[in-house]
Amino acid sequence: MKVLYTAIATAEGGRDGAARSLDGNLDVRIVPPKELGGPGDGTNPEQLFAAGYAACFQSAMHLVAKSQGHDLTDSSVTAEVDLGANANGTFGLGVRLLVSVPELDGAATQQLLEATHRVCPYSNATRGNIEVELIVE
Predict the structure, then answer these.
(1) Which CA distances in Å does 63 have to 53, 69, 70, 73, 105?
(2) Is the C-alpha dihedral spanning 129, 46, 79, 61 positive or negative?
(3) Using 50, 70 and 90 to split pLDDT, how confident is the model at 125?
(4) Consecutive H or E run containing 11
(5) In this structure, are residues 133 and 127 in contact, taking their beta carbons and an 8 Å threshold?
(6) 131 exposure class (CB count in 10 Å sphere: 0-12, 13-18, 19+)
(7) What pLDDT, in 10s, does the model give residues 57-91?
(8) pLDDT tens for residues 37-51?
(9) CB within 10 Å: which end of the chain, N or C, has fewer?
(10) Quick one: how far is CA 49 from the chain centroid?
(11) Contact 98, 54 (CB under 8 A)
């Protein structure tokens, strides 16, 4: 792989601490969500993953759409990231990507999502590791 960019971030305190990027653009308090007994007054790793996946997928979708001659000005991607317990006592993630593309019909949007899922770096990183569901809204 030819590296195009390297993001560097440091976390201290795990799920009850903070995370900062080397350049200072990201500086967040990490806390457990209320659903897991935490105060919920900060962000958590699942929210950060959801935001990153949604943004990355939409950028990849715009790239694929452009190559197909489509303009997706009004599109949006929402990522829902589930944290769950596996049967073997470990933990895992699941993702639903809810995509709205008013510019295209349902069949064209589904085709676009499948092509994007093959291009998106987050999709490529998670493929075979977690379930990712693509949903046309």
Answers:
(1) 15, 10, 10, 12, 18
(2) negative
(3) very high
(4) strand 9-12
(5) no
(6) exposed
(7) 999 999 999 999 998 999 999 999 999 999 999 99
(8) 999 899 999 999 999
(9) N
(10) 5
(11) no
